[in-house]
Every structure is written in C-alpha cells, then in structure tokens.
Amino acid sequence: MMTATDVLANAPAQLLPARELMAFTLASHIMLVPFGVALPFITLLMHYRGLRKADPAALLLARRWSAVMAVQFAVGIITGTVLSFEFGLLWPGMMGRWGDVFGLGFGVEAWAFFLEAILIAIYLYGWRRLKPWTHFWLGVPLPLTALLGAFGIIAANSWMNTPQGFALDSTGNPVNVDVRSAVFTPMFGPEYWHFVVAMFLTAGYVVAGVYAVGWLRGRRDRYHRLGFCVPFTVAAILTPVQFMVGDATARAVFHKQPVKFAAMEIVWNTDTHVPEYMFGRLQEDGSIKGGLKIPQLDSILAGFSPSTQVTGLTSVAASDRPTTTQATIAHWAFDIMVTIAGLLILLALWYGWCWLRRRDLPRSRWFFRCAAVAGAASLLTVECGWITTEVGRQPWIVYQNMRVSDAVTPTHATSLWTMFGIVVVVYVLVFGAFLGVVLAMRRRWRLADVGFAHPLGGAPETDTPYGPRPELTTAGPKPAPPAEPGTGRAPGGPE
Known about the structure:
One of its GO terms (molecular function) is metal ion binding. Keywords: Cell membrane, Electron transport, Heme, Iron, Membrane, Metal-binding, Transmembrane, Transmembrane helix, Transport. Its main location: membrane. It comes from Kitasatospora atroaurantiaca. The protein is mainly alpha-helical. The chain has one domain. Helices cover 66% and strands 5% of the residues. The chain has 17 helices and ten strands. A hairpin with a 2-residue loop joins β9 and β10. α3 (33-52) packs antiparallel against α4, α8 packs across α10 (188-216) and α12 packs across α14.
C-alpha cells in the first residue's frame, strides 16, 4: 500500500526548492502585512485624537507613525513584487490553467496597492502644508484601500482552499467562469475577517510594545503613555473578538475542508467522541506521541456535542492528504496560534480590569514586560495561521483540482536552490536596511524629545506638526510663532 511519504518521495526534484523559496518569501512578507493593513487606521485614530483634543503629543505620534508607515510600505513593495513574480515563475501550471478564474483577486490587490501608494504620499506631504482637518480627511481613505488589498489577496487564497465558479471541459480546463462565485467562495468570509482582525490586533500589540519598552526604561511622559494606550486599547478590544472569529473559522474548515481539519487536529480515523490533543506528533501508524490528551473535546469543539463525527485523514487516499509530518506541522502551528491567543486574552483582561477600576494603566512591571512581548507573539501567530492554511491543504495547490507537484515549474532544482540563496541574501539586506532606517528615525526623535538638534542637521521636532518649522539659529532652534486658533497655521502663513 502506497503511503503519503512514498507519494512525496516520487515528487519532482524541483518541488522542494520551489516550496522553500515560496515559504521563505511569504513568511518574510507577511511580517510587514499587519502594518500595511492596520497602521494607517491606528495612525489616523491618533491623528483624530490630536485634532479633537488639541493634543500636540498625539499629533506628533501620528506624524512619526506616518513616517514609519511610509518606510514599511516601501519595503513591502519589494517583498510583494517578488511574491507576485514567484506565482508565475514557480507555479506556472496553476497560473496557466486557473489564472482566468481567480486572477481578479490579484488585480484588485494591485489596484489597491497603487492607490495606497498615492494616498500615503498625499498624507505625508500634508503635514505642515494642509489645513489640519483637510489633511486628516484626505488620509481617511488609507485604511479602506488597505482593506481592499486584503480583500484581493484573501479572495485568491480562499478560492485555492474552496474553488468554485467554473466548469471543466473535456480536457480538464476551466470554462464558463462565474467571477462573483469565484471571488465569494465558502471560505472567503471566515478567512477575510479572521485575517483582518489578526492584522489590526498584531499591529496594535507591536506598536504598543515599543512604548511598553520605553515605559519599562522610565519614560513615563504623556507621549509614551499615549503611544502605548491607543494601539494597545485597539488590540485589547479585538483580542476576544479574534478568539471568537478564529473559532468560527476553524468550524468553517471542519465543514468545508474536513481533511485539512483532520490535519490541524491530527485525527487519523473518522469517529465520534474524538479527543483533542494539545501538541503531540502524529506517527505513520496513526498513533500520537506526546501531547496533552483531552477526551471528547475535539468533537465538542467541532459540533458542540461529543457525538459529532470528525473526518479522519484515512478517509481519503494517502496521495490526497497531508503526510504525517505535514499534519504535525499544521497541528503545531494551529495549537501555537490558539495558545498565544488565550494568553493575549488574559493580558487584555488584565488591562481592562485595571482601567475600569482606576482609569489608569496597570502598575506592575510584569504587565509591561508581557505587553512588550505581545507584539512578537502576535507576529508569530500570523506566521502560524498561514502555515496552518497552506500546509494543511497539501498536496493540493487548488483543493481537489490540482496538486502542487502538477503546478511546479520545470526549472532545474539546482537553479531554484541558487535563486533561493540569492533571495535570502537580498532579503537580509533589505530587512537590515529597513531596521537601520527605523532605528535612525528613533534616534533622531529621541534627540528631538530632549531638545537637541540632530547631528546631521535640522531642528528638533518640538513644534506642532502643523505650521512652519522653527528656524535654526546659532543659539539653537528659534520657536515658530503661535498658530492661529483652529487652523494650526502661523499668522500670515500660506493657505
């Protein structure tokens, strides 16, 4: 009897390097996605607070976050472009046969990408040049374009998980394409909202984590308090929401992709009263080594009853399901994601309890230590979510319609490994440059906060983000004239 391992051993030699290259570039790109999707909203939220309350600290934070947003977007251009080329170069079989069916999602994402680039440029240009509220309203479409880009990507991915909107001719090629049906697949809604909430939650925790570190180092001013509270509050509100959305998404997988669900929960045989395993490793004979076994819980979570029947991996041929190694990877990724989500709920409850009782932040340093780690933990859950989605679907690139091995490029494996090495080097340089730029901005802002001019020239940013910059004199920066009430502009300034 042929096992799944035998099937994998007979795969084309170029399949492994193609997979590794795609996995590396996707894992690298997705670390930037939360900021591309959610940072515009968090920035505008701070911007609105600054204008509504005439709060210069909030306006300064919004301005600085917009600069980080622009740098992140520039790096995302590089990593996103590489990914778009890889779809055609590494998986020509899929794009050649199915591109006309699900390609609209990539088109929507591309249009959203260019529109977002234009809006970011306008938003950055508007500081000190536009009237305050005019500037704010010109930035409002930014989060919408980010959500539109996410719409396109998730439409394409959800189609790969639950393909529909086409018929097959006698040669197996898709015909009679229904674009609406191809976009709004059964998994689109669950995937989209799970993804969007994850992006906002992750960006909130990462941004707040930066100011949590500053708080631990003794920076207890209003600037750091606001920088922590606004993004952390967004993340804390969304954390329990995400837990419920994630549960609904897992149940959608149970109904729409039962074999993937079996991999996520390492269920070998179809049965009722199925136990839940926290971690553990699936063996070739179907046994599970290690992990924490909770009787009947998997059936209860899947259908709210111990008698719920859960489909096992052996319900399909070995060639049509993930290998035991792939199932274990998907299972561990899923369990890590759920475990971190549970810990983040506890952190959010801690924050909420202290705020409701005292209208103040928690006083324990352990809270801020946990908040500082929450950002990295959230990024890990994003990575685990994509691992679960992609590895759990194996061996299909288009679920039940095309295998990954049938879609891979005919390019020689050696060439792909060489390309992989080059991409790794380029990405290390790109992300190193990104980190260097962000750290340089942080140093400049820190100097500005203590009232010193930047060593490379320019005045410290102690003035309002609206109105002219202070003039730099030999004695130091000369303060800008006071702004006219309600305008944010200096008297006699340009309209």
